[in-house]
């Protein structure tokens, strides 16, 4: 991970003109090409014609979530898929970009881990709680129907306050997307044979803490507090 990625500083986008914002991006590329790339040229040469990522990381498109920074991963380590609400559509309902990426990661890249990562202060989850704000965004509204099961669970089972509902929904949404993930044939087959492991995480933007879903206990626990919580079901077959 380049040093400049550690402790990234950024001015508020509201303070920049459109030209200034683009200039910062282009300047960043120029810095990468002049300063960062030469230092890691051997790595990029190795990656030029192949990839072998350690894990697939499915997370929100939110600009504050940078998987490589959070996990201190290098290029080639993570196969990242991002979308509004860190959604995994159930298999067969919408075999689009997310479903294709999952199938490719499992079948072509042989990833051993898939992480579904939600986060604090998620705008998508706020919209699920208050869908009236989505009237001018019909595509987003349709996409977030994949979070309806989580909203329904919270409404019917949680006696939490309005302030607490966002956090509970964020957790339930990660669990729901893990359930959707298991409907994908490529995932289900490798889970059953113990060749794939799935994980549900919640990243706190303000504190850097990550809580992981413990499927056995049915709760999220802090990473670093005892054994790593696992969301993977028990394998049922011997891998061939």
Question: Would you mind describing this structure in some detail?
Answer:
With 240 residues, the protein is of the alpha/beta class. The chain has nine helices and six strands; from the N terminus they run ααβαβαβαααααβββ. It has helices spanning 18-39, 41-47, 67-70, 97-107, 123-129, 138-143, 148-157, 162-181, 185-192; strands at residues 55-60, 78-83, 113-119, 197-203, 210-214, 219-222. The protein has a six-stranded mixed sheet with strand order 2-1-3-4-5-6, with helices on one face. Helix 7 packs across helix 8 (162-181). It is globular, with a radius of gyration of 19 Å. The two termini are 36 Å apart. 28% of the residues are buried.
H/E topology pattern: HHEHEHEHHHHHEEE
Q: What's the end-to-end separation, in Å?
A: 36 Å
Shape: globular
Order of strands across the widest beta sheet? 2-1-3-4-5-6
Helical content (DSSP H or I, runs of 4+): 25-40%
Q: How many strands, which pairing sense, and closed or not: the largest β-sheet?
A: 6 strands, mixed
């Amino acid at each position: 991970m380049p040093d400049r990625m550690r402790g990234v500083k950024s001015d508020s986008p509201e303070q920049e003109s459109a030209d200034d914002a683009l200039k910062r991006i282009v300047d960043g590329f120029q810095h990468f090409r002049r300063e960062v790339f030469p230092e890691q040229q051997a790595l990029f040469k190795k990656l030029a014609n192949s990839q072998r990522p350690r894990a697939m990381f499915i997370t929100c498109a939110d600009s504050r979530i940078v998987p490589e920074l959070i996990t201190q991963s290098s290029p080639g380590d993570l196969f990242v898929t991002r979308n509004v609400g860190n959604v995994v559509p159930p298999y067969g309902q919408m075999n689009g970009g997310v479903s294709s990426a999952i199938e490719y990661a499992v079948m072509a890249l042989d990833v051993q881990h898939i992480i579904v990562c939600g986060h604090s202060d998620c705008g998508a989850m706020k919209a699920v709680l208050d869908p009236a704000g989505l009237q001018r965004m019909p595509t987003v509204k349709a996409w977030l129907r994949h979070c309806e099961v989580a909203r329904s669970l919270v409404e019917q089972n949680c006696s939490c306050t309005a302030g607490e509902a966002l956090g509970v929904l964020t957790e339930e949404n990660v669990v729901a997307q893990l359930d959707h993930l298991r409907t994908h044939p490529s995932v289900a087959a490798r889970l059953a044979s113990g060749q794939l492991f799935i994980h549900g995480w919640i990243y706190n933007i303000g504190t850097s803490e990550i809580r992981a879903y413990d499927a056995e206990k049915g709760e999220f626990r802090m990473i670093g507090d005892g054994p790593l919580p696992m969301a993977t079901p028990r394998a049922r077959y011997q891998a061939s």
